[in-house]
């Protein structure tokens, strides 16, 4: 909304008046409007106004995080230190949507890579870069436009199952493609190279989530520790990040001719989550009660008790004590 702080009044002779115009928005995009100024019987003066809004209205709810600096970015999601080849660790994150639009997020996980021979990435998509999918990960095809299925599907289209047909029936009509011509295209995107995919290390489930307007949704972020080689003696830092590419399935929310336009996918700034964890080899220190190892020495005469009249012993048990110490900051299992 565009709001003039002084909307009407009286101007005296040779008087000058400055009027402040404020722009309010809780959603990214470009906005156009006209301010009409009427003076007496003169023809109205039309003042066009334009505003560009950037940013992401999706925020994560972190109960353990507090800061007084509003400009400070969101903290890193940490998974602690894990044992090499250990079990998967999962964090639950709630996403809040403060905008009046349903926003779909398609998540991709990366690991930063700094190489001089890789500066840019050339991405080619046949159809939408992030098509609407069902819970099984299959592309949803609009039943009203079966002939446009080839342009709406991914490069490796899969057969539409019964569950996907049910999901189509429950989806909004606006999620289907009404303009066949605008959807039949091959998009080429050139972007800066920053990282490589890291699905084997960090994974987000579900990869596609819709955060309702004024509501919230939850996602699971899991970390699977890698297996370190025998020559690695210290812990290894595993830094990654997740990008949530924003899309609007409602065509009216994407563009209202002459009034607003909202980019999506790669054209809109994605939601970024920084991820960090450490992996270290399992290590236990062993302290023996005898130096040089555990050795058991017995003689045949040890089977003769102090009172020989009771007879020779059939067995003799000797015990050595071994002390195991865990000097790391993580619990470890041994056998």
UniProtKB/TrEMBL annotation:
Residues 136-173 are annotated as: Disordered. GO terms for cellular component: cilium; cytoplasm. InterPro entries: DLEC1, Ig-like_fold. One of its GO terms (molecular function) is tubulin binding. Residues 143-162 have a biased composition (Low complexity). It comes from Mustela putorius furo (European domestic ferret). GO terms for biological process: negative regulation of cell population proliferation. This is Deleted in lung and esophageal cancer 1.
